[in-house]
Amino acid sequence: MSTRIPLRKRLLVRLLIASVLIAVCSVAATAWLAVATTTQALREEQGQVLTEDMDLLARLSGYAATHPDWKGVARTVRDLSERTGRRIALTTADRVTIADSAPPGTSLPPRASATVDPLRTDTYTERGAQRSGTDPRVVGPYLLTAQERARLDKLALVRQLCFAHNGVDAEIIRTPGGRPVLSVEEAPIPCADGRLNTPTATEEKAHTELTALAHACLARHDLHVDVPYFASDRYTAGKAVKGSGLGSDAKDGAVRQAQECVDDARRAQLDPYVAPAAELFLGDGDRAAVRFDMSPANKAKVVGAAGLVLAVTVAVTVVVATRLVRPLRALTEAARQPPEAHARVPVTTRDETGILAAAFNALTERRERLEAQRKAMVSDIAHELRSPLTNIRGWLEVTKDGIVEPDPALLTSLHEEALVLQRVIDDLQDLAAADAGTLRLHRESVDARELLGQVAAAHRPAAAAAGVALETSVTGTPSLDADPVRMRQALGNLVSNALRHTPAAGSVTLTARAEGDAVVLAVSDTGSGIDAADLPHVFDRFWRAEKSRSRRTGGSGLGLSIVRHLVAAHGGTADAASEPGAGSVFTLRVPRAS
After folding, report:
1. Is the pLDDT of residue 411 over 60?
2. Going along 191-337, which residue ranges are E strands?
3. Which long-range contacts (CB under 8 A, 24 or more apart) does 380-389 make?
4. Residue 376 has pLDDT above 70, yes or no
5. From CA 281, how far away is CA 429, in angstroms rounded?
């Protein structure tokens, strides 16, 4: 049975009120601080600066161009992050982290800022810009040996001196591959020297490998071209396609296709020497900061308001927690008491804790009642077994001592006492099986008329001996879904009980009728009846109306309890109605056969 709790008394409502109160205080204090301490408009730093982004991309592209993998990039990422105050993260195409300056678990920005791929993007040739093509820092097999660099350095120095002699200032610039070049493209005629631009053995070997890689693509498009040595060398229509007969548009298309074939071959050749393509994520880091006027007065306001909010929060929490914990502590203390103490707790509220306390008290009362019933049952069993055992023992002892002869009358008496013991033990066994849920039923469709006839026939001799009329009455042709043996046992117990309490010239009637989905079986008598105070206990074990425990009626006190358990095992109910001096009616409701 549920207890309705007033809305204002519900634990959830009280917790919500406390939370709302704390939230309101916090929001109010925060709003007041925002208004009182802000002396000027908030200033935000600019977003990502394009130049800085490009510098970061160029640095990371340079790392990828000079390393076959990303294993050591974490240090570079950390140094760049510390220098710029930006978050820098590198991931694979499917967002598996390679390196990240932010703490582990920090979510990435929704979109990548750029893709680091030196085989397809050149961030080196023109500072602050991205160009399509291979980054010149990807050298791979084109890296000159020390001897080759020394020889070319001498040639470059000689040519620089020649430029100077002819009034031209030229600077020697070293390419990533180690080859020196002069900053002035057009040389005076006396200074022209093809030896400086002649490919070295290393470059020749790499060029041969590149030509082999590009051959399949060029042949597939029927192109006959000279593959350039360096990625910076571009085709012209005149030297890209040998032969004539092609129009201008056709030649341009052939040039583009040849360049594509060579570019693909060069990327395939350089791929083992560069790190895999990666996604670059850039964050603002700590650059966008809110500035407040933190004067001493404002600092005092912040500290005071924070302290007030903290005090209110602590006070409300303490009050609510104390009221919630007090009944729980009482329940805990009561639960720790010895079982025989049957401790109870006071119910002081009507909220969830009050209902819990009431349920705990009800459980304690039920446990106390069950304990009393257990003790009474043990006492009853001892009494029921002691009486016949005492009689049997007494007669056996006097017979053994030769005081009484073992005549047929004595043996008959001992046999009757043994039957009483057997009946009590059988009844206890049935009740134990019912309590354990192991009572086996063999259900079938049972004709009610035939069932009542069998029960009446079994008890007619006893009824005739007691001078009681035993009758049956069936309305219609009801059939019940039941175990016929167990139902005969249940009805037999009711009939035996009725015969014991019905005086001579009285009557016991068995009736059956269909009622909805059930069959109603009733056993009524014209006996002495049962007092209203005793009626609720008639199905209790070992209960008898005779408080003196007289065995005159011959019952064990278990028959009606067995009836209730048998009917409950069938999914039915057993009820009793009685009026002192007018008899009793025991009604069984059992599921009807489909």
Report:
1. yes
2. 278-283
3. 380/541, 380/542, 380/557, 381/424, 381/428, 381/542, 383/549, 384/424, 384/542, 384/556, 384/557, 385/421, 385/424, 387/551, 388/417, 388/418, 388/420, 388/421, 389/417, 389/421
4. no
5. 79
477 phi, psi to nearest 5 deg: -130, 65
**Looking at residue 577, what is its pLDDT?**
92
Q: Are 228 and 259 in contact (CB under 8 A)?
A: no
Contact (CB, 8 A) for 354 and 324: no
C-beta of residue 560 within 8 angstroms of C-beta of residue 545: no
SS3 219: helix
Residue 510 bridge partners (DSSP): 472, 523
Give the whole-number percent of the chain exceeding pLDDT 90.
14
Which structure tokens are listed for 251?
């030649």
Q: Which residue has the higher pLDDT, 32 or 524?
A: 524
CA 208 to chain centre: 62
8 Å CB contact between 51 and 282: no
Give the Cα separation of 493 and 555 in Å (integer).
10
Main-chain dihedrals φ then ψ at residue 180, nearest 5 degrees:
-85, 140
Nearest to 458 by CA among 494, 407, 418, 411: 494
Instruction: List strand residue ranges (DSSP E) for 451-558, in order.
Output: 469-474, 479-482, 507-515, 518-525
CA 304, 309, 310, 314: dihedral to nearest 10 degrees?
140
> 197 to each of 151, 153, 203, 309, 512, how far by Cα in Å?
12, 12, 11, 79, 121
Full-model pTM: 0.41
In the beta sheet, which residues pair with residue 472? 510
Tokens found for residue 317? 């929490």
Of 320, 314, 305, 306, which Cα lies nearest the Cα of 18? 320
Beta bridge partners of 592: 480
State the sign of the Cα–Cα–Cα–Cα dihedral 552, 553, 555, 560. Answer: negative
**Residue 428, C-beta contacts closer than 8 angstroms, at least 6 positions apart:** 381, 558
pLDDT of residue 405: 78
